[in-house]
Amino acid sequence: GVIYDKDILEELFNKDFDKAKQGMEELVGTSPLPMLVKGVIIEMVFQLGIGGVSKFKKMFAALKEYDYLLASAEMLNSAWYRQTPSRCEELANLVRKCEI
């Protein structure tokens, strides 16, 4: 029943987003991945934290080879998919589109 000021909520979101973006940068380094893939990783870090996303070793190995089909398949082959299938499928589909 608490009503928060919009400015406070936006400030909290921006802090969380900046933290997720920094997490993505730590995970991919200077890799020239497409911005779409980087955005997906930001969203993953936002939801799972950097520790959770860092466990996607096979996904990152596929991304290192620019194999977006395999990377998207590895996203779906996870406990994350079983917990939030709709979100995971949506993000995996975005990564898959980079293959074209």
Write up this protein.
With 100 residues, this protein is mainly α. 77% of the residues lie in helices and 0% in strands. It contains six helices and no strands. Helix 3 (57-64) packs antiparallel against helix 4 (68-76). The N and C termini lie far apart (47 Å).
Task: Find the count of extended strands (DSSP E, 2+ residues).
Answer: 0
Order of helices and strands: HHHHHH
**Uncertain regions spanning at least 5 consecutive residues:** none
Supply the number of helical segments.
6
Helix share, percent: over 70%
> What is the beta-strand fraction?
under 5%
From the N-terminal CA to the C-terminal CA, the straight-line distance is 47 Å
Average pLDDT reading: 95
Radius of gyration: 15 Å
- Assign the structural class, choosing from mainly alpha, mainly beta, alpha/beta, alpha+beta, or little secondary structure: mainly alpha
Morphology call: globular
